Amino acid sequence: MRFISFSRRLFLAGIGGSLTASLIPLANATEITNTDLTPRALGNPKAPMVVEEWFSLTCIHCAEFAKNTFPSVKKNLIDTGKIYYVFHDFPTDKLAITAAMVARTLPPDRYLAFCKALLSNLDRWAYRQDGKQLEELKKMSAFAGMPADIFDKAIADQKLMKFILDTQSAAESKYHIDSTPTFRFNHKEQATGSLSYEAFLANMKKAT
């Protein structure tokens, strides 16, 4: 999905499947902590290769990669200690940043399952035509164990929003990222689109 440039100031002003996680209230449910700003990653940080993915939670191509390629990447490369995989938010619309804020407010161990559920059910929440996208997102966050009051705080958290937008802007400036998903392999090779597993391996080989 091509990323359409937008005014960051107007963007800020304008923002006012099933999960495996059980319905367990979050710890310290009345507070949102700085863990929202920590990296979201999988694997061994000392792995010989680092792979970074910039993705949007409303992107169909990100959903395709998550469904068709990422399971093999996790099984064969992350779980075996060959790569350290880092996730970066790159929201392509207002709904995507809202979803990213909710995902980052969940405990880190629920982040990936929640993102996977959102990407697997885009028609259920992001692409619905009845104007109830936010309402459905709230329902899905409840399945991940997020109380309604924490959801409301999460989507109003200006510090978290600024963090996501600032890191996105930095990626645009430093790596010229303008579409999702985008991947960087060992800080050398960069690729875009819903990579097949074979293409993923080919980029890894180039980066060694």
Summarize the entry for a quick read:
The chain has 208 residues and is an alpha+beta fold. It is built from nine helices and five strands; from the N terminus they run H-E-E-H-H-E-H-H-H-H-H-E-E-H. Strands 1-3-2-4-5 form a five-stranded mixed beta sheet, sandwiched between helices.
Structural features, described:
With 208 residues, this protein is an alpha+beta fold. The protein has helices at 8-14, 60-68, 70-78, 94-105, 108-120, 133-143, 148-155, 158-175, 197-207; strands spanning 40-42, 49-55, 83-89, 182-185, 189-192. The protein has a single domain, classed as Glutaredoxin, CATH 3.40.30.10. The chain has a five-stranded mixed β-sheet with strand order 1-3-2-4-5, with helices on both faces. Strand 4 (182-185) and strand 5 (189-192) form a beta hairpin. Residues 1-30 have low confidence and may be disordered.
Describe the protein's topology.
Layout: H1 8-14, E1 40-42, E2 49-55, H2 60-68, H3 70-78, E3 83-89, H4 94-105, H5 108-120, H6 133-143, H7 148-155, H8 158-175, E4 182-185, E5 189-192, H9 197-207
Helix pairs in contact: 4-5, 4-6, 4-7, 4-8
What is the highest CATH level, the class? Answer: Alpha Beta
Q: Low-confidence stretches at least 5 residues in length (pLDDT < 50)?
A: 1-30
Q: What portion of the residues fall into strands of 2 or more residues? A: 5-15%
Number of domains: 1
Q: State the distance separating the first and last CA atoms.
A: 28 Å
**What is the radius of gyration computed over CA atoms, rounded to a whole number of angstroms?**
17 Å
Strands of the largest sheet, in order across it? Answer: 1-3-2-4-5
| Extended strand count | 5
Structural class: alpha+beta
